[in-house]
Design a protein that fits this description.
By secondary structure, the protein is of the alpha+beta class. The protein is about 30% helix and about 10% strand. It is built from 15 helices and 14 strands. The protein binds heme C (2 copies).
Length: about 450
């Protein structure tokens, strides 16, 4: 165990991924260390501007108008929100009628925030980030009450049940009027049970069915044709962009975020540094909460530090290369130009080059005209694949049969899954070696 862990740490260090200390103590007259994201609004503004790839899409426009803008519209004027919360516990599902959606117990407490943060590398940040990932109320989601009536209801809507972490990452949070409200946390969407049944933070919850829960909470009978676009989301997909709900994307794997050059599947945000990620998370929480409150900035920074630290939970590609040297060679010749080592990702690819469904890449909300290249770290243990989650696994992605209209394996809709034609002409032996390599990543 230790050896494995050490190997991973060495591998991350070799790849230059363990951040160098940003504030090395030097001479005696050095001012107290500070974290500019926490202390300096003009720094935040400059970082935001530098991180937006397409300043004219709606995502960028909203942030340029409201984030550290220094005027009356500035989100910085919103009150900070760190309410008492309590995770919903697995055994509550066994009570008659299920878990309460409104009554808070005495166990509900706010997150304990550190008085000071010495630097971006302060270990207290990652610890706070882990807590916040599972407890901070990111988005009120009363509709998930339909999944809290029993264990089978939780399973129906894809809420995981974990004896330690609770039910689907859902919490009860105290609202301004004193009532409790069911709220999602990051781990509702971004944690799932792995192959061994253990809860894996960062792994996308491919079973979570936000669309079905929303419709059920509105009393729409299951399977009824409503014409509502959210009926087409299906498990593992959410529209986090439009109010109409017409642009669902798969929930991405957060474990490889540290490697990414760009955040969001249509490459909306340059992943320049920890601050760019913290701003992405801070503004997500503000918009998910209807722009009436904002998270304490230290919580956003801690979440960013924790998400980046998840990279250490993934295996090293050296193991995959040992398991399948021939697969590693096929990868080097056909794939490594875009999935560039050691990150196994690289600059975004124009929509016409990649050829997958361009709808999301052209989105007026988030589009940039390109898709970002997913880092393949962790690809062997996640699914579904592609930005729209239309393909179940690497096996199906490298099966040329998916290009035919008669393809039966498409998720979310029927027919062919087009684009990403790389590797489809490999011979049978190279193909199976490549798959063995990818499954071990
Ligand atoms: C309702 C489900 C949901 C919740 C809750 C949620 N996310 Fe996400 N998250 C998504 C989806 C869907 C995307 C993909 C968006 C896109 O590609 O444009 C995403 C994208 C991201 C990304 C970009 C990853 C990448 O691969 O580019 C990060 C980072 C992230 N989320 C972090 C968080 C954090 C931290 C929280 C908690 C504060 C959180 N998310 C809460 C669904 C969710
Ligand atoms: C021209 C650049 C390019 C090349 C070459 C390329 N890829 Fe990709 N790859 C991409 C992009 C961009 C996506 C995302 C497409 C989307 O989401 O619509 C992607 C997606 C993937 C995915 C899905 C990952 C996920 O999490 O959804 C896998 C697996 C993958 N590529 C493996 C490979 C392999 C193996 C090869 C070589 C046979 C290869 N790629 C060659 C750019 C490339």
């Amino acid at each position: 165990m230790w050896v494995q862990l050490l190997r991973r740490v060495t591998w991350l260090a070799a790849a230059g991924l363990l951040g160098a200390c940003a504030f090395s103590p030097t001479s005696g007259q050095d001012p107290a260390p500070r974290v500019p994201y926490l202390d300096d609004a003009s720094f935040r503004r400059a970082e935001l501007e530098a991180s937006l790839v397409n300043p004219s899409n709606a995502y960028s426009q909203l942030r340029l108008a409201r984030y550290a803008s220094g005027d009356g519209a500035d989100w910085e004027r919103l009150p900070e929100w760190n309410p008492p919360v309590e995770p919903i516990v697995a055994s509550e599902l066994d009570a008659p009628g299920g878990a309460s959606t409104t009554a808070l117990s005495r166990r509900a407490v706010p997150l304990a925030l550190p008085a000071t943060v010495a630097s971006e590398d302060d270990p207290a940040l990652v610890a706070l980030g882990e807590l916040a990932f599972h407890r901070y109320p990111t988005q009120v989601g009363a509709y998930f009450g339909v999944g809290l009536t029993s264990r089978s209801a939780a399973a129906r809507y894809g809420l995981w049940v974990d004896e330690t972490r609770g039910v689907g990452g859902l919490v009860r949070a105290r609202m301004a009027d004193g009532s409790g409200a069911v709220s999602l946390t990051c781990s509702t969407c971004h944690s799932a049970q792995g192959a061994e049944g253990d809860l894996v933070a960062g792994l996308p919850n491919a079973r979570l069915d936000v669309g079905a829960a929303t419709l059920a909470a509105q009393g729409v009978p299951e399977g009824a044709a409503t014409g509502d676009p959210i009926a087409a989301w299906g498990p593992g997909r959410v529209d986090v962009t439009t109010t109409a709900g017409t642009e669902p994307v798969r929930i991405p794997d957060l474990r490889p975020v540290r490697w990414l050059t760009h955040l969001q599947q249509d490459a909306t945000v340059r992943s320049r540094d920890l601050t760019a990620l913290a701003i992405r998370i801070e503004t997500l929480i503000i918009t998910s909460g209807d722009q009436v409150v904002r998270p304490p900035r230290v919580v956003a920074l801690a979440l960013a530090a924790y998400v980046r630290a998840l990279a250490a939970t993934l295996p090293s590609p050296d193991g995959a290369a040992r398991a399948s040297p021939r697969g590693a060679a096929a990868f080097a010749s056909q794939c490594a130009g875009c999935h560039i080592a050691p990150a196994l990702t690289g600059p975004p690819v124009p929509l016409a080059t990649i050829g997958t469904d361009p709808t999301f890449g052209l989105s007026a909300s988030r589009g940039t005209g390109a898709y970002r290249v997913p880092s393949l770290h962790g690809v062997g243990s996640r699914g579904p694949l592609l930005h729209d989650g239309t393909i179940a696994s690497v096996d199906a992605l490298f099966d040329a049969g998916r290009l035919a209209p008669s393809f039966a394996g498409r998720l979310h809709g029927s027919g062919a899954v087009l684009g990403h034609l790389f590797g489809l002409t490999l011979g049978a032996e190279d193909r199976s070696a490549l798959l063995a390599y990818l499954r071990a990543l």
